[in-house]
């Protein structure tokens, strides 16, 4: 089975540009999470969805960040306009609460550098 | 207060020795889950082991076991017979609330280096 898929794997952009990160969760998973990892703040939850509905976006840094999940197999995290302090690794993860398994499986991450 | 505390920023261990990575947590919820992830230098997050708050037995997965001491709010990861490939960052994480609910809160991690 394919794991969580993220694209692009690397993104270099200039300050002020729009950045869109993409995620395809594991088929059948009904939870999708976006995390950000930086040296200063470690791994932190940005937002998560259940059945395509945003449940908790309290971790989203500011209005420049937005996330959508138009269907069960696709989500985007958009930063507009981007700033150098947004440079980080962005992870998408998915999970299911059916049965005994509730582990969150992570994608490979998108390494974002904003110049 | 930090919800997940990993007190060992870095550890050096000889190959084939057992390793214990410390993790303490703070929650007032009765239902919660504890996880350990491995992050090698390549950057991916690899799930290792899970312990539910109501699980009476300590979780085990191959060479990994979780020493769960609920009263002490401790969830240490034990790696038996360490290998060079175990060198990586290790993160302890907690999910509070009911199953599936909410994201994970991560500790700052422990950088484990296995020496030949």
What does this molecule look like?
The complex is a heterodimer of chains A (115) and B (116). With 115 residues, chain A is an all-beta fold. Chain A contains no helices and 11 strands. In chain A, strand 7 and strand 8 form a beta hairpin. Chain A is globular and about 45 Å long. Chain B has 116 residues and is an all-beta fold. The model of chain B has no long low-confidence stretch (mean pLDDT 93).
Summarize the structure.
The complex is a heterodimer of chains A (115) and B (116). By secondary structure, chain A is mostly beta strands. Chain A is 0% helix and 54% strand.
Order of helices and strands of chain B: EEEEEEEEEEEE
Q: Helix share of residues of chain A?
A: under 10%
Shape annotation of chain A? globular
Number of strands of chain B: 12
Strand content of chain A: over 45%
Number of helices of chain B: 0
Terminal Cα separation of chain B, in Å? Answer: 38 Å
How many β strands of chain A by DSSP? 11
The chain-level mean pLDDT of chain B equals 93
Order of helices and strands of chain A: EEEEEEEEEEE
Q: Compute the number of helices of chain A.
A: 0
- Round the Cα radius of gyration of chain A to an integer and report it: 14 Å
Category from helices, strands and their pairing of chain A: mainly beta
Provide the β-strand percentage band of chain B.
Answer: over 45%
Structural category of chain B: mainly beta
Sheet having the most strands of chain B: 6 strands, mixed
Low-confidence stretches of chain A: none
The main pleated sheet of chain A reads as: 7 strands, mixed
Which quaternary structure do these chains form? heterodimer
Helical content of chain B stands at under 10%
Return residue spans of chain B where pLDDT drops below 50 for at least 5 consecutive residues: none
Keywords:
heterodimer; A: 115 residues; mainly beta; seven-stranded mixed beta sheet; four-stranded antiparallel beta sheet; 0% helix; B: 116 residues; 12 strands
